[in-house]
Design a protein that fits this description.
Largest sheet: 5 strands, parallel
Number of strands: 14
Helix content: 40-55%
Distance between the termini: 71 Å
Strand content: 5-15%
Structural class: alpha/beta
Strand order of the largest sheet: 1-4-7-10-13
Length: 304
């Protein structure tokens, strides 16, 4: 008797779960021949990129000057194949028309994968500046090797720079998954659409949030818990948020923002400014200005 009751419960639940009106926005329907994005494969792709950018640190640890070209060539070929498939998966997952022209979109994906690979030398150059910034900015760092191997900021910033390039190439969905891989591993949340300059570093890092329309200049340092967020966003006539408008801060060159500071809205933090810890900033900060909790309270009182 109990088995019959359990069977009816399961059948009723399946019927409820398969009501299309309830499931249509949560169910990613598969069409024949279309690949699906894979967190597992995208994690492999980020590791292949790391092996190309930091040879000997990641991937094959026995690389030397004699074998470098061979190993990087094999890794690049593998990256090209896997990235092409995942870019295609992103395209298929975000297209509304069905079915997708697989042959055409595969060629499109292969072209974007090749362009991404062509960007790796420049990406490596920029990431080298991030490694230098992390090393110079932390008296506890004893070597570049320690920074590359151990610092969560380098992992998060590496994923960001990979994902940002894919955003620039017009790749849907995949960049966000790559950034979320780093978010889940490090607690650092950098939207791939943010624009970040050279010599960027995040000390400790946990809890840092950088929004999609944030712009960060060169030689900027953030500490743990910093938020570069949106104060509010306008709604359309249907009450839905309007997408794509600038709503996050602009951080100029040579700025330091200390732990748990919250910078909100499309404001500008001027070049060389310093923002103290545990502060809520919603107005422009002049170049070279130092904002402490006392000054922040004075600003609030003056504007009342």
């Amino acid at each position: 008797m109990r088995k019959q009751e359990h069977a009816r419960t399961i059948t009723d639940t399946v019927n409820k779960l398969t009501q299309y009106d309830d499931v249509k926005i949560l169910c990613n329907q598969h069409h024949e021949g279309e690949p699906k994005p894979s967190w597992h494969i995208l994690r492999e792709i980020t590791e292949l990129c790391r092996a190309l950018i930091f040879p000997g640190y990641f991937g094959n640890s026995k690389i030397d000057s004699d074998t470098l070209k061979y190993h990087l060539g094999v890794t690049t070929e593998q990256l090209y194949r896997m990235l092409t498939e995942q870019i295609l998966a992103g395209i298929c997952s975000t297209r509304t028309e069905s079915p997708v022209d697989i042959a055409k979109e595969h060629e499109n994906a292969a072209g974007k994968a090749a362009e991404f690979i062509a960007s790796l030398p420049e990406m490596r150059r920029i990431l080298a500046t991030d490694v230098i910034a992390a090393y110079n900015g932390d008296p506890a760092a004893e070597s570049y090797e320690e920074v590359i191997f151990c610092y969560p900021a380098i992992r998060a910033i590496s994923n960001y720079r990979m994902a940002h390039k894919l955003i620039e190439l017009g790749v849907p969905l995949i960049p966000r998954i790559i950034s979320e891989l780093a978010h889940s591993e490090t607690g650092i949340d950098i939207h791939p659409a943010a624009r970040i300059g050279e010599y960027f570093t995040i000390d400790h890092g946990t809890g840092v949030v950088i929004g999609a329309t944030a712009i960060i200049g060169n030689n900027v340092k953030l500490y743990q818990g910093v938020t570069l967020g949106a104060k509010s966003f306008p709604l359309d006539e249907n009450g839905n948020p309007i997408k794509g408008i600038p709503r996050h801060p602009i951080i100029k060159d040579n700025v330091i923002i200390y732990s748990n500071a919250t910078i909100l809205g499309r404001i500008t933090i001027g070049e060389g400014a310093t923002i103290g810890g545990n502060i809520w900033v919603t107005e422009d900060v002049a170049p070279g200005e130092q904002i402490t909790q006392i000054k922040a309270k004075q600003r609030t009182s003056e504007n009342r």
